[in-house]
From TrEMBL:
GO terms for molecular function: kinase activity. This is Xylulose kinase. Residues 8-251 form the Carbohydrate kinase FGGY N-terminal domain. Belongs to the FGGY kinase family. Residues 260-456 form the Carbohydrate kinase FGGY C-terminal domain. Its EC number is 2.7.1.17. It comes from Bacillus caldolyticus. Coiled coil: none annotated. It catalyses: D-xylulose + ATP = D-xylulose 5-phosphate + ADP + H(+). The keyword rRNA processing does not apply.
Length: 519
């Protein structure tokens, strides 16, 4: 069906796909198109992507949505960009890739990260840059590249993120927005500039990194070849935007200080707004730029809905068969089993660190653990314990953020988990606070579109986005359940602290086992 009104396009360059979402000027989704691509994992702990494949996905996604819906170039009043954080790659003098894109999930730099923390004043670097010291950080990845591939490192003329690369292909200019830069570990929060100490530590020069601009920076003069393939005018205003995480806050309407957004998809995150750069003396939270004068303080977790998928795939053959016969989603059946079990899973506690953990522990060696297992525990107890473990990890991040920014006045939830009223209520009980479920469609893309309109002066403030979003549900915590979870969370936190050394031992054993299998 052809679209005849003026539109703004939000482009979300994600981990597994790029989406081009067409909105009207009040944030209503008119059309969308996604292009998928793989994660390349040549060795254990590696996670890479082909940057040219991602660039092609951007062009293809926008072109498909404009052509399919008859959108003429003059109808596209602006485009805004969102991208996944923490990616880095090396380019040669001609701008050609010397490496694949190392993405946030890449953990190859564990040794460099440990050295940064123990020998290089890692906590000081975090306080200046707002990026926790962790293998996800481009700072750690660059150290790995320097030490493990010195020839490539020396040959590199520039180091860029996925968004920087896409913009260079489109415009021939190397620019990075403050938001993406603030997730590199190389950017000073107080000066909004590259951090000279971090650059010296890695051994790179300022001119090897892109020019810095705010999220509201407008680019025009796109190369005609790409504009034609995308079905837009070369002079269409493209607002550089921000990272996907901070834009998701905008997209769910959590845009004022104290308002929090919780997302549980494959992984999870808790984020709230601050009006000044704010870091944690214990290094538990991140602080990333949004638009001038606004910052997002929060923490990501590695283990969200991916754990239910693990349960379904590895232990849920029976449930898959039953669900197929009943014509329902296997996840719905798993949830029905979990509903049979009381809060606390009758004393079965799950530490959900199957993929290591980021916030608040920032420990790539953390591992999953069931504790308190007895003969009375059945399949449904394990399912509920896994769901509770994901919520415990979210609670641990929320408490760290509260210590840094103060109490949360409003919590909005989104992501795949938000489709489950049972899981939403569990999280409300655990947090002891009401949860609001906004009607969200592509939160990061909506945030990118909103920032684009704001940059063009068509929105008086990002707070206007609240009027675009309807609320579909609200969950009040059940006090008796909150008390149970408070008792068990205390045990959860103590278990993590007591198992830290054991996690290091078993992680080292697992890495050696993986190397033996490769040989």
């Amino acid at each position: 069906m052809a679209i005849h009104e003026d539109v703004v396009i939000g482009i979300d360059i994600g981990t597994t796909s790029t989406k081009a979402v067409v909105f009207d000027r009040r944030g209503k989704v008119l059309a969308s198109h996604a292009v998928d691509y793989p994660i390349i994992q040549p060795h254990p702990g590696f996670a890479e992507q082909d940057p040219d494949e991602l660039f092609a996905a951007v062009v293809q996604a926008v072109g498909a949505v404009t052509i399919r819906h008859g959108i003429r170039p003059e109808q596209v009043k602006a485009m805004g960009l969102s991208a996944a954080m923490h990616s880095i790659m090396a380019l040669d003098e001609s701008g050609r890739p010397l490496t694949r894109l190392l993405i946030w999930a890449d953990n190859r730099s564990v040794a460099q990260t440990e050295r940064l923390l123990k020998e290089q004043n890692g906590l000081d670097i975090y306080r200046r840059t707002g990026t926790p010291i962790h293998p996800m950080s481009p700072l750690s990845k660059l150290l790995w590249l320097k030490e493990e591939q010195p020839d490539v490192f020396q040959q590199a003329r520039r180091f860029v993120s996925v968004k920087d690369y896409v913009l260079h292909r489109l415009y021939g200019d190397y620019v990075a927005d403050h938001s993406m830069a603030s997730a590199t570990g190389l950017f000073r929060l107080d000066t909004l500039d590259w951090d000279e100490e971090a650059l010296a530590l890695v051994g790179i020069r300022r001119d090897q990194l892109p020019r810095l601009v705010p999220a509201t920076h407008i680019m025009t003069g796109m190369k005609r070849e790409w504009a034609e393939k995308m079905g837009v005018a070369p002079d269409v205003p493209v607002v550089i935007g921000a990272s996907d995480g901070v834009l998701a806050n905008v997209g769910v309407g959590a845009v004022l200080p104290g308002e929090a957004a919780i997302t549980i998809g494959t992984s999870g995150a808790v984020r709230t707004i601050a009006t000044k750069p704010t870091t944690d003396e214990k290094g538990r939270t991140f602080c990333y730029a949004l638009t001038p004068g606004y910052w997002v303080v929060g923490g990501p977790t590695n283990n969200g809905g991916i754990l239910l998928r693990w349960l379904r795939d590895e232990f849920g053959a029976h449930e898959r068969e039953v669900a197929k016969k009943l014509g329902i989603d296997p996840y719905e059946l798993l949830t029905k089993y979990a509903e049979r079990v009381p809060p606390g899973s009758e004393g079965l506690v799950f530490l959900p660190f199957l993929s290591g953990e980021r916030a608040p522990y920032w420990n790539a060696n953390a591992r999953g653990t069931f504790f308190g297992l007895g003969l009375h525990h059945k399949r449904e107890h394990f399912i509920r314990a896994v769901m509770e473990g994901v919520c415990f990890s979210i609670l641990s991040v929320a408490l760290a953020i509260r210590d840094v920014t103060g109490p949360m006045s409003e919590i909005r939830v989104s992501g795949g988990f938000a489709k489950s009223p049972f899981w939403r209520q569990m999280l409300a009980d655990m947090l002891g606070k009401p949860l609001i479920v906004p009607q969200t469609h592509e939160a990061s893309a909506l945030g990118a579109a909103a920032v684009a309109l704001y940059a063009l002066g068509e929105l008086p403030s990002l707070e206007t986005v609240k009027t675009w979003i309807d609320t579909t549900a609200r969950h009040e915590p059940k006090e008796e359940h909150t008390l149970i979870y408070a008792e068990l969370f205390d045990l959860y936190a103590r278990l993590y602290e007591r198992l830290k050394e054991e996690f290091d031992i078993i992680a080292a054993f697992q890495r050696r086992s993986g190397e033996r299998e490769e040989d």
